[in-house]
Design a protein that fits this description.
With 148 residues, this protein is α+β, with helices and mostly antiparallel strands. The chain contains five helices and five strands; from the N terminus they run E-E-H-E-E-E-H-H-H-H. The protein folds into two domains: 4-78, Beta-grasp domain (Ubiquitin-like (UB roll), Roll); 82-146, [2Fe-2S]-binding domain (DNA polymerase, domain 1), CATH 1.10.150. It binds FE2/S2 (inorganic) cluster (FES). Keywords: 2Fe-2S, Iron, Iron-sulfur, Metal-binding, Oxidoreductase, Ubiquinone.
Length: 148
């Protein structure tokens, strides 16, 4: 069919019969069952849906399936960042937890670009990820604890 899309997610290939204009958020959550990527605002404002496209952070709610053709998509389920994830648990970062996979995706993308981010680098990289519980101080401490 015309709408056969090829996706590479967490290193695996998928073929989906879907609208190419559909946000990838719905493909990963509803069609592939990867529910770690969260729906917050649906409008690019909160960061809960952050994924990586070719290693760079992106909003899954604003990224269409056709935009990721031929690209490598990573969701929280495929994130390889054990040290960072351990720091999240050591610093007891999550409160309600809803925004935290997006927070981790943004933090991991920052560290892959910059192994030694300072506080202002962290503020800049994390400013698009909103947390209603206000876990920002612990997020910063966790990122600083793994900065090389
Ligand atoms: Fe995508 Fe809020 S759900 S930025």
């Amino acid at each position: 069919p015309d709408n056969e899309l090829k996706l590479t997610i967490n290193g695996k290939q998928f073929q989906l019969d879907a609208d190419p204009n559909m946000p990838i958020l719905w493909a990963v959550r509803d069609m592939l069952g990867l529910t770690g990527t969260k729906y917050g605002c649906g409008a690019g404002l909160c960061g809960a849906c952050t994924i990586h496209i070719d290693g760079k952070p992106a909003r899954a709610c604003l990224t269409s399936l056709k935009q990721v053709q031929g690209k490598q998509v990573t969701t929280i389920e495929g994130l390889k960042a054990d040290e960072l994830i351990n720091a999240w648990s050591e610093h007891k970062v999550p409160q309600c937890g809803y925004c935290q996979s997006g927070q981790l995706m943004s933090a991991a993308a920052l560290l892959s670009q910059n192994r030694q981010p300072n506080e202002s680098d962290i503020d800049a990289a994390m400013s698009g990820n909103i947390c209603r519980c206000g876990t920002y101080t612990r997020i910063k401490a966790a990122i600083l604890s793994v900065s090389a």
